[in-house]
Amino acid sequence: MNEDTIHDVIMVGAGPSALAAAVYTTREDIETILFEKGAIGGLAAITDQVDNYPGFAEGVAGLKLAEQLEKQAERFGAKIELGSVDKIEDHGEYKLLHTSDGPFKAKAVLIATGSDYKKMNVPGEEEYYGRGVHYCATCDGAFYRDKRLAVVGGGNSAVQEAIFLTRFTSHIDLLVRSTIRASDVLKKELQRMVDEGKITVHLATTVDEIVAVDKKVTHVAVHQDGQPVNVEVDGVFVFIGLSPNTAFLEGSGVELDELGLIKTDIELHTSVRGIFASGDVRSGATMQIASAVGEGATAALKIREYLEQPKE
Amino acid sequence: MKQVTVYSKNACASCVMVKKWLTIKKIEYTEVNTDMHPEALEDAVKLSGAATMPVIVVEDSETLAKHISVGYKPAQLASLVVA
Ligand SMILES: Cc1cc2nc3c(=O)[nH]c(=O)nc-3n(C[C@H](O)[C@H](O)[C@H](O)COP(=O)(O)OP(=O)(O)OC[C@H]3O[C@@H](n4cnc5c(N)ncnc54)[C@H](O)[C@@H]3O)c2cc1C
Fold first, then answer.
1. Which domain, by its residues, includes B72?
2. Contacting residues for B15 by C-beta, under 8 A, at least 6 apart
3. Are A79 and A8 in contact (CB under 8 A)?
4. What is the ipTM of this complex?
5. Are B20 and A139 in contact (CB < 8 Å)?
6. Is A296 buried (19+), middle (13-18) or exposed (0-12) by CB count in 10 A?
7. How far are the Cα atoms of A2, A30, A68, A73, B43 from residue A76, in angstroms, in the given order?
8. Tally of domains within chain B
9. Which CATH class is domain A6-116+242-308?
10. For residue A98, is pLDDT > 70?
11. Which of A94, A71, A96 shows the shortest CA–CA distance to A86?
Protein backbone atom coordinates (compact mmCIF):
# COMPACT_ATOMS: atom_id res chain seq x y z
CA MET A 1 0.00 0.00 0.00
CA ASN A 2 1.35 3.38 -1.02
CA GLU A 3 2.01 5.82 1.81
CA ASP A 4 0.32 8.59 -0.21
CA THR A 5 -2.93 6.64 -0.67
CA ILE A 6 -5.79 8.46 0.97
CA HIS A 7 -8.19 5.84 2.29
CA ASP A 8 -11.89 6.54 2.65
CA VAL A 9 -12.18 5.80 6.37
CA ILE A 10 -9.92 4.49 9.08
CA MET A 11 -11.46 3.28 12.32
CA VAL A 12 -9.39 3.27 15.48
CA GLY A 13 -10.32 0.19 17.53
CA ALA A 14 -12.21 -2.95 16.47
CA GLY A 15 -14.64 -3.30 19.35
CA PRO A 16 -18.42 -3.72 18.84
CA SER A 17 -18.86 -0.05 17.91
CA ALA A 18 -16.27 0.11 15.12
CA LEU A 19 -17.14 -3.37 13.82
CA ALA A 20 -20.81 -2.37 13.54
CA ALA A 21 -19.79 0.88 11.81
CA ALA A 22 -17.61 -1.13 9.40
CA VAL A 23 -20.55 -3.37 8.42
CA TYR A 24 -22.41 -0.22 7.36
CA THR A 25 -19.54 1.60 5.60
CA THR A 26 -18.35 -1.43 3.65
CA ARG A 27 -21.88 -2.25 2.51
CA GLU A 28 -21.93 1.28 1.08
CA ASP A 29 -18.68 0.51 -0.78
CA ILE A 30 -16.72 2.86 1.45
CA GLU A 31 -13.20 1.47 1.75
CA THR A 32 -12.65 0.78 5.45
CA ILE A 33 -9.59 -0.11 7.50
CA LEU A 34 -9.71 -0.81 11.24
CA PHE A 35 -6.71 -0.72 13.56
CA GLU A 36 -6.90 -2.91 16.64
CA LYS A 37 -4.12 -3.02 19.22
CA GLY A 38 -5.72 -5.59 21.53
CA ALA A 39 -8.50 -8.13 21.09
CA ILE A 40 -10.84 -7.86 18.12
CA GLY A 41 -14.27 -7.41 19.71
CA GLY A 42 -12.92 -5.15 22.45
CA LEU A 43 -14.29 -5.56 25.95
CA ALA A 44 -17.14 -7.69 24.61
CA ALA A 45 -14.58 -10.35 23.63
CA ILE A 46 -13.45 -10.78 27.23
CA THR A 47 -16.94 -10.84 28.73
CA ASP A 48 -18.14 -14.30 29.70
CA GLN A 49 -21.81 -14.04 28.90
CA VAL A 50 -23.84 -11.20 27.40
CA ASP A 51 -27.51 -11.48 28.36
CA ASN A 52 -28.82 -8.08 27.31
CA TYR A 53 -27.82 -7.83 23.66
CA PRO A 54 -31.04 -7.92 21.63
CA GLY A 55 -31.59 -10.88 19.33
CA PHE A 56 -30.08 -13.57 21.57
CA ALA A 57 -32.92 -14.98 23.65
CA GLU A 58 -30.60 -17.28 25.61
CA GLY A 59 -27.74 -14.78 25.81
CA VAL A 60 -24.47 -15.15 23.95
CA ALA A 61 -20.83 -15.69 24.98
CA GLY A 62 -18.93 -12.41 24.59
CA LEU A 63 -16.19 -14.04 22.52
CA LYS A 64 -18.77 -15.63 20.20
CA LEU A 65 -20.49 -12.26 19.67
CA ALA A 66 -17.10 -10.67 18.95
CA GLU A 67 -16.23 -13.37 16.40
CA GLN A 68 -19.58 -12.95 14.64
CA LEU A 69 -19.20 -9.14 14.49
CA GLU A 70 -15.70 -9.55 13.05
CA LYS A 71 -16.84 -12.08 10.42
CA GLN A 72 -19.79 -9.88 9.43
CA ALA A 73 -17.57 -6.80 8.94
CA GLU A 74 -14.97 -8.82 7.00
CA ARG A 75 -17.67 -10.41 4.83
CA PHE A 76 -18.36 -7.00 3.28
CA GLY A 77 -14.67 -6.14 2.86
CA ALA A 78 -13.51 -4.45 6.07
CA LYS A 79 -9.76 -4.83 6.55
CA ILE A 80 -8.53 -5.25 10.13
CA GLU A 81 -4.91 -4.35 10.84
CA LEU A 82 -3.40 -5.69 14.06
CA GLY A 83 -1.68 -2.56 15.31
CA SER A 84 -2.15 0.67 17.23
CA VAL A 85 -2.84 4.24 16.20
CA ASP A 86 -0.49 6.38 18.24
CA LYS A 87 -1.25 9.90 16.97
CA ILE A 88 -3.66 11.71 14.64
CA GLU A 89 -2.97 14.93 12.74
CA ASP A 90 -5.64 16.96 10.98
CA HIS A 91 -4.59 18.08 7.49
CA GLY A 92 -8.03 19.31 6.45
CA GLU A 93 -9.14 17.10 3.57
CA TYR A 94 -7.20 14.17 4.98
CA LYS A 95 -6.15 13.00 8.44
CA LEU A 96 -2.68 11.57 9.01
CA LEU A 97 -2.54 8.62 11.39
CA HIS A 98 0.75 7.54 12.91
CA THR A 99 0.37 3.81 13.45
CA SER A 100 2.58 0.93 14.58
CA ASP A 101 2.61 -0.03 10.85
CA GLY A 102 3.69 3.42 9.66
CA PRO A 103 1.74 6.48 8.47
CA PHE A 104 -1.77 6.13 7.01
CA LYS A 105 -4.00 8.81 5.48
CA ALA A 106 -7.80 8.86 5.49
CA LYS A 107 -10.55 11.23 4.44
CA ALA A 108 -12.54 10.39 7.57
CA VAL A 109 -11.68 8.78 10.89
CA LEU A 110 -13.87 7.02 13.44
CA ILE A 111 -12.51 6.80 16.96
CA ALA A 112 -14.07 3.88 18.82
CA THR A 113 -11.28 3.07 21.25
CA GLY A 114 -13.45 2.33 24.30
CA SER A 115 -11.75 2.20 27.65
CA ASP A 116 -9.35 0.15 29.75
CA TYR A 117 -9.56 -1.19 33.29
CA LYS A 118 -8.73 1.28 36.02
CA LYS A 119 -5.94 0.26 38.34
CA MET A 120 -6.17 0.60 42.14
CA ASN A 121 -2.62 1.99 42.35
CA VAL A 122 -1.84 0.21 45.61
CA PRO A 123 1.40 -1.57 46.55
CA GLY A 124 1.56 -5.10 45.12
CA GLU A 125 -0.89 -4.46 42.30
CA GLU A 126 1.65 -4.01 39.52
CA GLU A 127 4.19 -6.38 41.02
CA TYR A 128 1.78 -9.35 41.08
CA TYR A 129 -0.08 -8.56 37.85
CA GLY A 130 -0.91 -11.91 36.20
CA ARG A 131 0.51 -13.71 39.24
CA GLY A 132 -2.30 -13.09 41.69
CA VAL A 133 -3.74 -9.79 40.47
CA HIS A 134 -6.09 -9.97 37.48
CA TYR A 135 -8.52 -7.87 35.43
CA CYS A 136 -10.16 -10.55 33.24
CA ALA A 137 -12.28 -13.27 34.85
CA THR A 138 -12.85 -15.31 31.68
CA CYS A 139 -9.12 -15.27 30.93
CA ASP A 140 -7.71 -16.15 34.33
CA GLY A 141 -10.55 -17.47 36.52
CA ALA A 142 -9.79 -21.15 35.81
CA PHE A 143 -6.45 -20.85 37.62
CA TYR A 144 -8.35 -20.42 40.90
CA ARG A 145 -10.27 -23.69 41.03
CA ASP A 146 -11.13 -24.40 44.70
CA LYS A 147 -9.17 -21.34 45.82
CA ARG A 148 -10.22 -18.18 47.66
CA LEU A 149 -10.50 -14.95 45.73
CA ALA A 150 -11.18 -11.30 46.42
CA VAL A 151 -13.07 -9.27 43.84
CA VAL A 152 -12.71 -5.51 44.16
CA GLY A 153 -15.56 -3.22 43.03
CA GLY A 154 -19.28 -2.75 43.48
CA GLY A 155 -20.61 -1.89 40.00
CA ASN A 156 -22.22 -4.11 37.35
CA SER A 157 -18.91 -5.50 36.08
CA ALA A 158 -17.58 -6.42 39.54
CA VAL A 159 -20.80 -8.16 40.58
CA GLN A 160 -21.22 -9.93 37.23
CA GLU A 161 -17.62 -11.18 37.26
CA ALA A 162 -17.75 -12.21 40.93
CA ILE A 163 -20.83 -14.32 40.18
CA PHE A 164 -19.03 -15.85 37.16
CA LEU A 165 -15.94 -16.65 39.25
CA THR A 166 -17.96 -18.67 41.79
CA ARG A 167 -17.96 -21.53 39.28
CA PHE A 168 -14.26 -22.02 40.04
CA THR A 169 -13.60 -20.75 43.55
CA SER A 170 -14.25 -22.09 47.02
CA HIS A 171 -15.16 -18.59 48.23
CA ILE A 172 -15.16 -14.95 47.12
CA ASP A 173 -14.79 -11.82 49.25
CA LEU A 174 -16.35 -8.91 47.39
CA LEU A 175 -14.58 -5.74 48.55
CA VAL A 176 -16.76 -2.68 47.93
CA ARG A 177 -15.60 0.87 48.67
CA SER A 178 -19.09 2.23 49.37
CA THR A 179 -22.21 0.28 48.38
CA ILE A 180 -23.32 -2.08 45.60
CA ARG A 181 -24.26 -0.11 42.46
CA ALA A 182 -25.36 -3.00 40.23
CA SER A 183 -28.63 -3.63 38.40
CA ASP A 184 -31.51 -5.25 40.30
CA VAL A 185 -31.12 -8.51 38.35
CA LEU A 186 -27.45 -8.76 39.35
CA LYS A 187 -28.21 -7.75 42.95
CA LYS A 188 -30.73 -10.63 43.19
CA GLU A 189 -28.23 -13.11 41.78
CA LEU A 190 -25.57 -11.79 44.17
CA GLN A 191 -27.93 -12.27 47.12
CA ARG A 192 -28.45 -15.88 46.06
CA MET A 193 -24.66 -16.42 46.07
CA VAL A 194 -24.40 -14.77 49.49
CA ASP A 195 -27.19 -17.02 50.84
CA GLU A 196 -25.38 -20.07 49.46
CA GLY A 197 -22.21 -18.96 51.25
CA LYS A 198 -20.25 -18.54 48.00
CA ILE A 199 -19.71 -14.78 48.28
CA THR A 200 -19.24 -12.51 51.29
CA VAL A 201 -19.83 -8.79 50.66
CA HIS A 202 -17.68 -6.29 52.56
CA LEU A 203 -19.07 -2.76 52.26
CA ALA A 204 -17.19 0.45 53.19
CA THR A 205 -13.92 -1.37 52.45
CA THR A 206 -10.85 0.16 50.81
CA VAL A 207 -7.84 -1.82 49.63
CA ASP A 208 -4.44 -0.73 51.03
CA GLU A 209 -2.09 -3.40 49.70
CA ILE A 210 -1.85 -6.78 48.02
CA VAL A 211 0.50 -8.87 50.10
CA ALA A 212 2.49 -11.91 49.00
CA VAL A 213 4.79 -14.38 50.69
CA ASP A 214 7.44 -16.03 48.48
CA LYS A 215 5.83 -14.24 45.49
CA LYS A 216 2.45 -15.94 46.16
CA VAL A 217 -0.44 -13.65 47.04
CA THR A 218 -1.63 -14.51 50.56
CA HIS A 219 -3.92 -11.65 51.58
CA VAL A 220 -5.33 -8.23 50.84
CA ALA A 221 -4.77 -5.58 53.49
CA VAL A 222 -7.91 -3.45 53.69
CA HIS A 223 -9.57 -0.85 55.86
CA GLN A 224 -13.13 -1.80 56.77
CA ASP A 225 -15.18 0.88 58.51
CA GLY A 226 -11.87 2.56 59.30
CA GLN A 227 -10.34 -0.56 60.91
CA PRO A 228 -7.37 -2.42 59.33
CA VAL A 229 -8.28 -5.99 58.38
CA ASN A 230 -6.48 -8.75 56.43
CA VAL A 231 -8.56 -10.73 53.96
CA GLU A 232 -6.91 -14.08 53.19
CA VAL A 233 -7.03 -14.96 49.49
CA ASP A 234 -5.05 -16.66 46.73
CA GLY A 235 -5.80 -14.02 44.12
CA VAL A 236 -7.50 -10.69 43.47
CA PHE A 237 -9.68 -9.63 40.53
CA VAL A 238 -10.12 -5.87 40.12
CA PHE A 239 -13.19 -4.26 38.47
CA ILE A 240 -13.32 -0.68 39.72
CA GLY A 241 -14.31 1.05 36.53
CA LEU A 242 -12.77 2.10 33.28
CA SER A 243 -10.70 4.96 31.95
CA PRO A 244 -11.09 6.11 28.33
CA ASN A 245 -8.45 5.29 25.70
CA THR A 246 -7.91 8.86 24.51
CA ALA A 247 -4.28 9.66 25.46
CA PHE A 248 -3.21 9.17 21.82
CA LEU A 249 -5.43 12.13 20.80
CA GLU A 250 -3.19 14.69 22.49
CA GLY A 251 -2.40 17.42 19.99
CA SER A 252 -5.07 16.22 17.52
CA GLY A 253 -7.50 19.05 18.28
CA VAL A 254 -10.21 16.55 19.30
CA GLU A 255 -11.92 17.99 22.38
CA LEU A 256 -12.38 15.84 25.48
CA ASP A 257 -14.62 16.32 28.52
CA GLU A 258 -13.36 16.49 32.12
CA LEU A 259 -13.33 12.65 32.32
CA GLY A 260 -11.21 12.33 29.17
CA LEU A 261 -14.16 11.15 27.02
CA ILE A 262 -14.58 12.54 23.50
CA LYS A 263 -17.13 15.32 23.02
CA THR A 264 -19.34 14.94 19.94
CA ASP A 265 -22.37 16.64 18.47
CA ILE A 266 -25.62 14.81 17.84
CA GLU A 267 -24.18 13.47 14.54
CA LEU A 268 -21.22 11.96 16.46
CA HIS A 269 -18.85 14.46 14.83
CA THR A 270 -15.99 15.58 17.12
CA SER A 271 -14.57 19.10 17.27
CA VAL A 272 -12.38 18.21 14.25
CA ARG A 273 -14.21 17.99 10.90
CA GLY A 274 -13.96 14.49 9.46
CA ILE A 275 -13.19 12.85 12.80
CA PHE A 276 -16.12 11.00 14.41
CA ALA A 277 -16.41 9.09 17.71
CA SER A 278 -18.73 6.31 18.88
CA GLY A 279 -19.18 3.78 21.68
CA ASP A 280 -17.78 3.78 25.21
CA VAL A 281 -15.14 6.42 24.41
CA ARG A 282 -17.77 9.06 23.66
CA SER A 283 -18.89 11.57 26.28
CA GLY A 284 -22.45 10.61 27.25
CA ALA A 285 -22.11 6.96 26.17
CA THR A 286 -24.17 4.45 28.12
CA MET A 287 -21.39 1.82 28.16
CA GLN A 288 -23.44 -1.01 26.69
CA ILE A 289 -22.76 -3.20 23.66
CA ALA A 290 -26.18 -2.48 22.15
CA SER A 291 -25.66 1.28 22.37
CA ALA A 292 -22.04 1.04 21.14
CA VAL A 293 -23.29 -0.90 18.12
CA GLY A 294 -26.12 1.59 17.54
CA GLU A 295 -23.71 4.52 17.71
CA GLY A 296 -21.41 2.71 15.28
CA ALA A 297 -24.24 2.47 12.76
CA THR A 298 -25.11 6.16 13.22
CA ALA A 299 -21.48 7.21 12.86
CA ALA A 300 -21.13 5.18 9.65
CA LEU A 301 -24.15 6.88 8.07
CA LYS A 302 -22.87 10.31 9.11
CA ILE A 303 -19.43 9.45 7.70
CA ARG A 304 -21.08 8.56 4.40
CA GLU A 305 -22.83 11.96 4.36
CA TYR A 306 -19.53 13.67 5.20
CA LEU A 307 -17.70 11.87 2.38
CA GLU A 308 -20.45 12.80 -0.08
CA GLN A 309 -20.35 16.50 0.79
CA PRO A 310 -18.51 18.65 -1.73
CA LYS A 311 -15.26 19.86 -0.15
CA GLU A 312 -14.50 23.56 -0.48
CA MET B 1 14.59 -22.59 13.25
CA LYS B 2 12.12 -21.50 15.93
CA GLN B 3 9.52 -23.85 17.38
CA VAL B 4 6.48 -22.11 18.71
CA THR B 5 4.04 -23.65 21.21
CA VAL B 6 0.89 -21.84 22.33
CA TYR B 7 -0.78 -22.93 25.58
CA SER B 8 -4.36 -21.75 25.22
CA LYS B 9 -7.87 -22.14 26.57
CA ASN B 10 -11.27 -21.88 24.91
CA ALA B 11 -12.96 -18.66 26.15
CA CYS B 12 -9.82 -16.55 25.83
CA ALA B 13 -9.72 -13.53 23.52
CA SER B 14 -5.95 -13.07 23.92
CA CYS B 15 -5.39 -16.71 22.88
CA VAL B 16 -7.47 -16.08 19.74
CA MET B 17 -5.40 -12.96 18.99
CA VAL B 18 -2.03 -14.70 19.45
CA LYS B 19 -3.09 -17.48 17.07
CA LYS B 20 -4.45 -14.94 14.58
CA TRP B 21 -1.22 -12.91 14.77
CA LEU B 22 0.96 -16.00 14.19
CA THR B 23 -1.23 -17.08 11.26
CA ILE B 24 -1.05 -13.63 9.62
CA LYS B 25 2.75 -13.67 10.03
CA LYS B 26 2.77 -17.20 8.51
CA ILE B 27 4.47 -18.67 11.57
CA GLU B 28 3.69 -22.31 12.28
CA TYR B 29 2.84 -23.23 15.86
CA THR B 30 1.67 -26.12 17.98
CA GLU B 31 -1.35 -25.46 20.16
CA VAL B 32 -1.88 -27.09 23.56
CA ASN B 33 -5.49 -26.44 24.54
CA THR B 34 -5.58 -26.64 28.33
CA ASP B 35 -9.37 -27.10 28.36
CA MET B 36 -8.86 -30.31 26.39
CA HIS B 37 -5.67 -31.21 28.29
CA PRO B 38 -6.15 -29.84 31.83
CA GLU B 39 -2.89 -31.48 32.95
CA ALA B 40 -1.02 -29.02 30.70
CA LEU B 41 -2.29 -26.05 32.74
CA GLU B 42 0.31 -26.84 35.40
CA ASP B 43 3.07 -27.00 32.75
CA ALA B 44 2.02 -23.56 31.49
CA VAL B 45 2.13 -22.11 35.01
CA LYS B 46 5.56 -23.70 35.63
CA LEU B 47 6.94 -22.31 32.38
CA SER B 48 5.61 -18.79 32.79
CA GLY B 49 5.34 -18.38 36.55
CA ALA B 50 2.05 -16.64 35.80
CA ALA B 51 -1.61 -17.55 36.28
CA THR B 52 -2.76 -16.26 32.93
CA MET B 53 -3.27 -17.42 29.34
CA PRO B 54 -1.97 -17.73 26.69
CA VAL B 55 1.61 -18.82 27.34
CA ILE B 56 3.81 -18.84 24.27
CA VAL B 57 7.02 -20.84 24.25
CA VAL B 58 9.55 -20.07 21.53
CA GLU B 59 12.37 -22.58 21.32
CA ASP B 60 15.41 -22.25 19.11
CA SER B 61 15.96 -25.78 17.75
CA GLU B 62 19.73 -25.20 17.39
CA THR B 63 20.65 -23.51 20.67
CA LEU B 64 17.64 -24.99 22.55
CA ALA B 65 17.20 -21.56 24.17
CA LYS B 66 13.61 -21.11 25.38
CA HIS B 67 11.81 -17.78 25.51
CA ILE B 68 8.41 -17.30 27.11
CA SER B 69 5.78 -14.69 26.39
CA VAL B 70 2.53 -14.33 28.32
CA GLY B 71 -0.68 -12.73 26.99
CA TYR B 72 -1.09 -11.01 23.64
CA LYS B 73 1.89 -8.69 23.17
CA PRO B 74 2.55 -8.32 19.42
CA ALA B 75 5.80 -6.35 19.75
CA GLN B 76 7.29 -8.92 22.14
CA LEU B 77 6.07 -11.81 19.98
CA ALA B 78 7.66 -10.22 16.92
CA SER B 79 11.01 -9.88 18.65
CA LEU B 80 10.90 -13.54 19.77
CA VAL B 81 9.65 -15.31 16.67
CA VAL B 82 10.76 -13.16 13.76
CA ALA B 83 14.34 -12.45 14.89
C1 LIG C 1 -16.44 -7.12 32.62
C2 LIG C 1 -17.38 -6.42 31.69
C3 LIG C 1 -18.62 -6.97 31.43
C4 LIG C 1 -19.52 -6.32 30.53
N5 LIG C 1 -20.73 -6.91 30.31
C6 LIG C 1 -21.60 -6.31 29.45
C7 LIG C 1 -22.88 -6.89 29.17
O8 LIG C 1 -23.23 -7.95 29.71
N9 LIG C 1 -23.69 -6.25 28.29
C10 LIG C 1 -23.34 -5.08 27.66
O11 LIG C 1 -24.12 -4.56 26.87
N12 LIG C 1 -22.14 -4.51 27.91
C13 LIG C 1 -21.27 -5.08 28.78
N14 LIG C 1 -20.06 -4.49 29.03
C15 LIG C 1 -19.73 -3.23 28.36
C16 LIG C 1 -19.33 -3.46 26.89
O17 LIG C 1 -18.29 -4.43 26.84
C18 LIG C 1 -18.90 -2.16 26.24
O19 LIG C 1 -19.94 -1.21 26.35
C20 LIG C 1 -18.57 -2.34 24.74
O21 LIG C 1 -17.59 -3.33 24.54
C22 LIG C 1 -18.12 -1.01 24.15
O23 LIG C 1 -17.74 -1.18 22.82
P24 LIG C 1 -16.71 -0.18 22.12
O25 LIG C 1 -16.52 -0.71 20.74
O26 LIG C 1 -17.18 1.21 22.29
O27 LIG C 1 -15.36 -0.26 22.96
P28 LIG C 1 -14.43 -1.49 23.36
O29 LIG C 1 -15.20 -2.75 23.43
O30 LIG C 1 -13.69 -1.05 24.55
O31 LIG C 1 -13.41 -1.63 22.12
C32 LIG C 1 -12.44 -0.64 21.85
C33 LIG C 1 -11.27 -1.28 21.15
O34 LIG C 1 -10.35 -0.26 20.75
C35 LIG C 1 -9.01 -0.75 20.89
N36 LIG C 1 -8.08 0.40 20.99
C37 LIG C 1 -8.00 1.32 21.98
N38 LIG C 1 -7.06 2.24 21.70
C39 LIG C 1 -6.54 1.91 20.49
C40 LIG C 1 -5.52 2.50 19.66
N41 LIG C 1 -4.89 3.63 20.01
N42 LIG C 1 -5.20 1.88 18.50
C43 LIG C 1 -5.86 0.73 18.12
N44 LIG C 1 -6.83 0.15 18.87
C45 LIG C 1 -7.18 0.73 20.04
C46 LIG C 1 -9.08 -1.56 22.17
O47 LIG C 1 -8.01 -2.49 22.22
C48 LIG C 1 -10.46 -2.22 22.06
O49 LIG C 1 -10.38 -3.49 21.47
C50 LIG C 1 -19.14 -5.12 29.90
C51 LIG C 1 -17.89 -4.56 30.15
C52 LIG C 1 -17.01 -5.19 31.04
C53 LIG C 1 -15.67 -4.59 31.30
1. 2-81
2. B6, B8, B9, B53, B54
3. no
4. 0.89
5. no
6. buried
7. 23, 10, 13, 6, 42
8. 1
9. alpha beta
10. yes
11. A96
Return the CATH number at B20.
3.40.30.10
For residues B27 and B57, give the distance between their C-alpha atoms in angstroms, rounded to a whole number: 13
- Residues of chain A in contact with residue B72, where contact means CB-CB under 8 angstroms, are 38-39
> CATH class for domain A119-238?
alpha beta
- Backbone φ, ψ for residue A47 (5° rounding): -95, 130
Ligand 1 pocket, Cβ-based, cut-off 6 angstroms: A 12-18, 35-39, 42-44, 47, 50, 52-53, 84-85, 112-115, 157, 160-161, 245, 248, 279-280, 287-290, 292
Task: List, in sequence order, every residue forming a beta bridge with A116; answer none if it has no partner.
Answer: A243
Which pLDDT score is estimated for A47?
A: 87
Q: Whole-model pTM?
A: 0.90
Sign of CA dihedral A10, A15, A21, A22: positive
Domain with CATH 3.50.50.60 in chain A: 6-116+242-308, 119-238
Confidence at A1, pLDDT banded by 50, 70, 90: low
CB contact under 8 A, A143 and B52: yes
